[in-house]
């Protein structure tokens, strides 16, 4: 082969090599392949409004009306409006109490079962119009909205379907027209309502009545599309099935709405647990009062702090939102002892969860999807920043380990896990081992799962969270180890 031919081949080879290198450099720097992409979601998914609602964690309910003055829980509907006269009513105080407790949403009983309206409705005179309070010119709902808004707190409304006062109750057409008229009146007059509360509560001797819930729900969404509708059947938030402030040990945000009906006592177990095969995202809300009753009674006192913390672990810690009722008294104020207990409750929660001990250790995982590493579980974003294992067809066991730093021990008694629910609820089963000893065997996680160890305080080198069953690839947005000083027993794993 001549020298000229060899030179030509050499230059041709060199040209091909440089061309390939240049194309590869362009391919690698284009960003279209190297940018990590998230896993596919698993349906159903929450709406923006549902996610914002879930992140509130605790919502305040305020039961206030003629029952406050009659010392009853359920009024008869025959009460004289003149008994409603809260001479010291101060909704700013309500909002301040809520703000001090870290509450971002307050729901007011605009009308309870007795039919008395806390706003001047043009459809009935059984309201503040006929009371001596502010000479019949007052509007509790407006004052409530103004005070909450001034504190940066969102508002919600409860409009009882059961009305023991209005003579139209029992006539399906006439009463549903009346109810829908009041619903429109409220949502047109008071803007930016974030939750509206419907229930099926009524006494055993109540008149037969069919509520046009579908019509009501459609009207609500037409008037205020960002609102969350609560009822036994959603569509946005479901009742948890009881009033103890406790969700099921298994609690799915997914459920089949076609299996639900408002006021049906046979669905309470289904409401508590949800359904892993559910086609609708309808998370649960746990309602309970800070006192034994829902309305204020002079003879009652607020629940102990220890009981309220139990409620928090069993509601927020089981993938729910806690709806805590704090009723104003006859004067129109939240009683000092209730306000103090609520402040203590918030302070205790902040004390427990102010420092994530997992951040002081090192995190190991079974595998990592590129761009979705273990460090995402201990950052400040508990929703859209998450750890994802490698795709594996669901065959591998996924695990996370939190290791103490050399020469130290992890001291904790609460373990927290959160899923990236924006991409669906996935975990069906999980276990937690502390230094190799099985401490927790549980099912669902969802937005937040809190495990307060029965054994008490733990000193350990390693905590392992094993995901045993899933609907799809697990996506963990947050893990945490915390010390609850309000739990006094101690236990050391050896």
From TrEMBL:
Keyword set, alphabetical order: Glycosidase, Hydrolase, Signal
One Pfam family hit: Alpha_L_fucos
GO terms (BP aspect): fucose metabolic process; glycoside catabolic process
Signal peptide: 1-30
Record EC number: 3.2.1.51
InterPro entries linked: Galactose-bd-like_sf (IPR008979), GH (IPR017853), Glyco_hydro_29 (IPR000933), Glyco_hydro_29_N (IPR057739)
GO cellular component term, pick one: lysosome
Gene3D superfamilies in the cross-refs: Galactose-binding domain-like, Glycosidases
Gene Ontology molecular function: any one: alpha-L-fucosidase activity
Domain of life of the organism encoding this protein: Eukaryota
Residue ranges occupied by any Glycoside hydrolase family 29 N-terminal domain in the UniProt entry: 79-344
Entry's family note: Belongs to the glycosyl hydrolase 29 family.
Protein name (record): alpha-L-fucosidase
Source organism per UniProt: Phaseolus vulgaris
């Amino acid at each position: 082969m001549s020298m000229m031919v060899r030179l030509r081949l050499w230059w041709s080879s060199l040209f091909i090599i440089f061309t390939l290198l240049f194309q590869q450099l362009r391919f690698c720097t284009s960003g279209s392949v190297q940018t990590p992409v998230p896993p596919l979601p698993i349906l159903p998914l929450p709406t923006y409004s549902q996610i914002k609602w879930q992140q509130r964690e605790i919502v305040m309910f305020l039961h206030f009306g003629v029952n406050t003055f009659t010392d009853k829980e359920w009024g008869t509907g025959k009460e004289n409006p003149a008994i409603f006269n809260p001479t010291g009513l101060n909704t700013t105080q309500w909002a301040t109490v809520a703000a001090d407790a870290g509450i971002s949403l307050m729901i007011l009983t605009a009308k309870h079962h007795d039919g008395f309206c806390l706003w001047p409705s043009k459809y009935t005179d059984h309201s503040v119009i006929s009371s001596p309070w502010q000479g019949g010119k007052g509007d509790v709902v407006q004052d409530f909205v103004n005070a909450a808004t001034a504190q940066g707190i969102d508002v919600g409304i409860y409009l009882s379907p059961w009305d023991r006062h209005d003579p139209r109750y029992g006539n399906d057409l006439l009463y549903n027209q009346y109810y829908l008229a009041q619903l429109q009146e409220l949502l047109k007059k008071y803007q930016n309502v974030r939750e509206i509360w419907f229930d099926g509560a009524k006494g055993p001797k109540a008149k037969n009545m069919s509520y046009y819930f579908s019509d009501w729900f459609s009207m609500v969404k037409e008037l205020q599309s960002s609102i969350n509708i609560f009822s036994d059947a959603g569509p946005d938030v479901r009742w948890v099935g009881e009033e103890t402030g406790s969700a099921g040990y298994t609690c799915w945000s997914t459920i089949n709405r076609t299996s639900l009906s408002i006021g049906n006592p046979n669905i309470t177990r289904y409401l508590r647990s949800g359904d892993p095969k559910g086609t609708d995202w309808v998370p649960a809300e746990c309602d309970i009062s800070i006192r034994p009753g829902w309305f204020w009674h002079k003879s009652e006192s607020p629940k102990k702090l220890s009981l309220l913390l139990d409620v928090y672990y069993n509601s927020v810690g089981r993938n729910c939102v806690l709806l805590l009722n704090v009723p104003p008294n006859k004067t129109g104020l939240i009683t000092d002892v209730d306000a103090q207990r609520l402040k203590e409750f918030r302070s205790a929660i902040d004390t427990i969860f102010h420092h994530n001990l997992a951040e002081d250790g090192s995190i190991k995982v079974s595998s990592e999807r590129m761009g979705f590493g273990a460090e995402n579980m201990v950052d400040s974003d508990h929703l859209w920043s998450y750890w994802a294992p490698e795709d594996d067809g669901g065959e591998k066991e996924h695990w996370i380990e939190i290791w103490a730093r050399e020469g130290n021990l992890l001291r904790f008694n609460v373990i927290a896990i959160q899923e990236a629910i924006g991409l669906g609820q996935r975990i069906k089963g999980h276990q937690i081992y502390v230094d190799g000893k099985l401490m927790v065997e549980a099912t669902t996680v969802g937005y937040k799962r809190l495990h307060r160890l029965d054994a008490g305080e733990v000193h350990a080198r390693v905590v392992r969270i094993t995901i045993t069953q899933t609907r799809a690839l697990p996506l963990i947005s947050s893990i945490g180890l915390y010390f609850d000083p309000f739990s006094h027993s101690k236990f050391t794993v050896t």
